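hi!! sorry for the late reply, been swamped w classes. u asked for the two structures so here they r. pasted raw, havent cleaned anything up. first the sequence of the first protein and right below it the C-alpha cells
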Amino acid sequence: MIFKILQEKGTFMTQKVDAVVIGGGVMGASILYNLASKGLKNCVLLERDTLGSGSTGRSSGLIRMHYSTRVNAELSWKSFPYFLHFDELIGQQKPQFIKTGFIAIAGPESREGLLKNVSIQKEVGIDTDIIDLKQAKEVAPGFDFNGDEVFAWEPQSGHGDPSGTAMAYAKQAEELGAKIALKSPAQKIEVKKNKVSSVHTEQETYETEIAIMATGPWSSQFLSKLDIDLPLTATRHEVFLIKREGNILQNHPSGADMTNMTYFRPEGNDMTLVGNGNREHIADPDQYNPKPSMDYLEDVWLRLSKRIPSIIDGQYFTGYAGLYTSTPDTHPIVDKIEGYDGLYLCTGFSGHGFKLAPAVGICMSELVTEGKASFVDINPLKADRFSKGTQNQISYKFRVIG
C-alpha cells in the first residue's frame, strides 16, 4: 500500500524530514529507495499525480547498453543486474523483463560511430559484439539488410516494465520507513541564505535541508522559480504498436536502425512497438496530445518496413505520445546545484532514463550522503558542462534510439 499523507481539508501541516524527493517516476522512486537503504529513512517523495504517471508511464521500456559515451554505457550496464534480479537485490517481486536481444544497425555514415561505441562498451564489460551480415540475418530473420551496413549485437538485452519498476522501488522504500505523498505537487522550494530550508505543497511544509528534483519535463518550471537557467526542454515523442498478422514475421529482436531512424521491439508474440526519436516537438507538460499523429504513423511505419518488409501488411493496434526531458547533448544532469546548498537535480534523460534508473538512484544517494558518487563516475553529467563547453558527444545523427 503506497503511503498517502492524510489530513482534513483546509488544515495545514508542517513536518521535519531528512530529505524531500520531488517526482514519483522511476528516477524519484529509485532515489527514495536508495536514500532509505543508506539510512535516510525519514524522507518523503512528493508526486503531483500517481507513481509513474509522467514520462515513466509512457516509456518504450527498452533495456539496452548501446551508448556513445562511457558514462551512459556504465550506468546502463550497472543497472542491468537489477532488471534481472530485482527481487534478490532490492527485496520486492521482480518487475517483468523480457529478453529479446538488441541489434544496432548502422550504414556507412555511422559505421565509425558504431565501432567506437562497441569498443567503449566492451571496455565497460558489456556483453556486445560486432557481427557480420550472415550473423545479422540469423539473429534477425525477416529483416532486409544492406551489404555495406555494420551491426552490433547485445544478446542479453530486452525490455522491461517502467511503471512496475517505479512501484517496486517505492514499495520497498516505504517498507524501509520512507513516505510517499501522491496527488501532492510540490509548489515551492524555499532557499534561505543559499541553503534549502523547506519544500511546500498546497497544504504541507516539509522542513528539510535536502531537496532532490527528479521532476522530468516539469524541471524548467521549478528551476525558473529559483532563477536557475539550464538547457532543459520538454519534448513530445510518439510510439505505436503494429499487430503482425498471418504469415508476418513471428518474432524479432529489439533494435535501433540508424539508417532508417527507427527503434523497435517486440510486444508479446504478435506485435511490434516502433518509434522515431528524432521527431520530437517542444511540448507543454501540462497540456499535450497523448496520441500519435497520422503523419507520424505513415512516416515511421514506412521507415520500419524498409527494414522489416513484411510489417507493411500489419495492422495498427494502438499508440501513445509521452514526454522526454531533453538536453542539447542527450545526456542527463545528475548533480548538486552550485550556490544552492542542499539542492540536487536528476533530470534531462532525453528518452533513456528507465534503463539507467537503478544505477542513477545509487549514484544520487551517494552524492547526497557522501558528497560524491563512486558507483559510477558521473562527472560528465554535471550541470555546468553546458556553460563550460564540455558537452558529451554522441556518435549518431539519430538522437534517441529508445
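now the second protein. again sequence first, C-alpha cells right under
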Amino acid sequence: MQTVLVLHNIIRWLILIFGIVTVINALSGIRSKRAYSVKDDKASLFFMVFMDIQLLLGLILFFTNGWFDKIKAGMSEVMKNNYDRFFIIEHSLLMVMAWILVHVGRTVVKRSDNDKKFKKMMLYFGVALLLILLSIPWSFRPEIARPLFRGF
C-alpha cells in the first residue's frame, strides 16, 4: 500500500500543475479574447485524466487502509476524531465533488460556443481547483498533516 500512497502523492502534484495551467489558460483566454485552442483542450484533458487516476488510487487506499471499516464501526466515532473525519468525510467528499466538476466542466466547455469556453473553464475548473486545494492534507495543518513529498 505504500506504493499506492506514494503514487497518490505524486499524482497530486500533477493534478495541481495541470489544474493551475488550465485556470491560467482560462484567465488569459478571457483577458485576451483569443480563440480556444488545442493547447487549452489538452491542459484540461490532462487535468481530467490525472483526476481519474487519483480517484482510482484514492478508492484503493480508502478500502484497503481501514477507512471503510471505521465507517462500518460507527459514524459517531468518526465525527469525534478530526483526523478520521477529515479523511473519511471532508477529503473524500470534496475530492469527489472536484472530480465531478472537472468531468462536467470538460463536457460543458466542449459543447459551448467558442466565445464562452474560457468563462466556463474558469468556473468549473476554478471551483474544482479550489476544492482540491482545500481538501489536500497540507503539512501546515497539524491535525491532518501529511508530507509534501512521500518516498517509497
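hope this helps!! also noticed smth abt the second:
The chain has one domain: 2-135.
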